[in-house]
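Continued from yesterday's entry.
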Amino acid sequence: MAWYFWVIIVVVILMAFFVLGLYNGLIRLRNQMKNAWAQIDVQLKRRHDLIPNLVETTKGYMTHERETFESITNARNLAQSAVGQGVGAQSKAEGELSGVLSKLLMVVENYPDLKANTNFLALQEELSSTENKISLSRQYYNDSVMHFNNKIQMFPSNVIAGMFGFKTGEFFEVESAAERAVPKVSF
């Protein structure tokens, strides 16, 4: 009868290690997802910091484009106020900002002196680089969310996730039609 006792103890210990491994895997994936979101946040902050410089540089050339400048400023303020309000709200606000920025860059085509201005070119390059980094960060974040959600929804880790209250992550999705549109590039 003593050997049954030891078998039960070994099975319980193995089950505890199994549950602990699943739990730690869920924690690791959740932290990876949070880190990926933080990387997006860093790039969005960089974009928000670049926009006033871009607007000021272009204002001198584009005196009658007041509506464009106001919409950029409003979209930037909206995007900054959406920080911390969840992935969906921030995703929507950033999509609107992207649409307004692409509108600005299309309007710039009508100002050859501005397109040749070195300050504008440097800011445009910085903004373009930042947009690429945002895109890559979004992709990494969505990949992290997918891995986390898969782990939460697949057996047997879904049992542990349910016991400890893990919730699925929210994808960063493009909601704005302007952001989905292919930008027009002309030389």
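--- second protein ---
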Amino acid sequence: MAEAKTKPTDQSVDSFINKIPDPQTREDCLAIAKLMKEATRCDPQMWGSSIVGFGTRRIQYAGGREGDWPLMALSPRKQNLTLYGMTGPDSHTELLEKLGKHSVGKGCLYIKRLSDIDLPTLKKLIRESVKQKKQRAQKS
């Protein structure tokens, strides 16, 4: 069975974030990382070369293979800030309606910048997502 390509690394999270060229993106990542750390109560760790993860959970892929993945994570992508482990298309609907300018994918939330969204709503969305994932983990 193939191993997951994205794994925890020893790369410095601070170094990664401090090297983000755009100052606004860098500040947004620091703010989101703080919210994720508070919600998960886990220190950040790099996953691969560009994902800042918090905590670990076991996931099962569509093909049945299992692997470890961060409980919550963020990555400053070219088009958007990607927040992993946040939502699915049918979850947290009320919070997403209040959030502001964003898009969602399977388990991901995409935003351009924090100024486009309501920060208290994002904080609640992160907390609720962590709570939901921890409850699911206890049931399995």
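The CA atoms of residues 102 and 111 lie 5 Å apart. The chain is about 35% helix and 25% strand. Will compare against the first tomorrow.
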